[in-house]
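Dock xanthosine-5'-monophosphate; give full complex structure.
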Amino acid sequence: MKHELILVLDFGGQYNQLIARRVRDSKVYCEVLSYDTSIEKIKEKNPKGIIFTGGPNVVTEKDAPIIDKKIFELGIPILGICYGCQLMGYLLGGQIGKAKQKEYGKAELKVDNNNILFDDVKKESICWMSHTYFITKEPTDFNIIASTKTCHTAAICNSEKNLYGVQFHPEVVHTQEGNKILNNFLYKICKCKGDWIMTDIAQEMINSVRQKVGNKKVLCALSGGVDSSVAALIVHKAVGKQLICVFVDHGLLRLNEGDEVENIFRKQYDMNLIRVNAEERFLSKLKGISEPETKRKIIGEEFIRVFEEEAKKIGHVDYLVQGTIYPDVIESGTKNSAVIKSHHNVGGLPDVVDFQEIIEPLRDLFKDEVRAVGTALGIPDFLVQRQPFPGPGLAIRIIGDVDKEKLDILRQTDFVFRDEIAKAGLDRQIWQYFTVLTGLRSVGVMGDERTYSYTIALRAVTSLDAMTADWARIPFDILEQISVRMVNEVPNVNRVVYDITSKPPATIEWE
Ligand code: XMP
């Protein structure tokens, strides 16, 4: 089925994915494309509306990303946000100027709610601003429809041509009326109907995989993580036993995790699942290795070797399933940031499998949509709502070298932590929470005896996308209960500390 489409043209701002997610949350499908997409391609896509994102540049500078002015003549409604608003104003004859000082943070917004963009929006509310430049003089055929104390052109429009610009960020939660404003654009200006509905999408995906695969053979590396689980299940629902899933248990999983994954997929869904118990192989390769990137490299490579052996036994397959999701698609090739940690979980698989084509059923979905599709397919919450878990598993939560004894300590403390967080009903609020076996031992006293045991660090963060994170404010009495249980229930642990560093400057994982 072809869905109605909003195009988000990316000018490099930090909230770009957020804009797209908000549009999708409003049940309208959207795609993020680079600002330099040709007018022909845009026309071909036939969008109901276009959103220009914010961006770090100044429109009047020489190398600023600019768009062909023909876009304003297509008759397609456009909403420019921040840089996008300035760009629209500038290209259509307005003037841009520098504010006396950067405006960053919350501002009081006054809107003209006779304008359709602000239909049903409170006359006065708080919005989120983040800019230095702004439109000092709007184009002649535009009206000013909102203002703040320091920015008299907080929103402008040419209603006849359906061109709208907002200097503030409606996509950010701090903009109180942001959702309503975006919805007005989508539903009242672009006349969308809202056909991006997850239960239908799940069925559409199954149908399209079935059509594509026919009676051919498919292979999937199943990790038990949300993406690979949902991807595998879509393909399984489409072609049943023509799908073979290989689950490599590297021995670095959480308590009982390997059995849980096997149970669900083999027993509940009757999938064609091969579980490879490779703990010993991985642990022997990791012996004595303490450098984090070396650990990652060894695990990544060993994973590929194990998978390769299994794939050889299976022989030629027609398709290889990958759990690529939309943020991977948006980010691939557009960012040149320094490598802080290398995440090469399944990166090398295509090289070692004899296959014809990759299928990526989740390629168009954001993470929360993947979860919604998983739920629509009946995957239990404990799998679909699970926190992100790194490919190298517990190995990067043990500072220093990894062995079975340390892994068991970590598994037990991690279990206690998860159990207490779930009991406290905090599991949905915290993005990730886990324990770290610090390399540190310290002196303690237990039952009149001196102890010299490990220090466990608790790590719990709130986050939207793991790019930045804040340490979670877990109530003290819950922290106390966690600490008491860990020290009592887990041998060789006599001290528990709580990591109160945000990202940046720290990272979420310790390695
Ligand atoms: P950091 O520690 O970089 O983590 O703040 C950001 C997110 O990425 C996860 N992470 C990994 N995921 N392979 C993965 O698949 C890795 O090597 C890896 N290292 C970190 C981390 O759990 C968090 O969700």
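Observed: The chain is about 35% helix and 25% strand.
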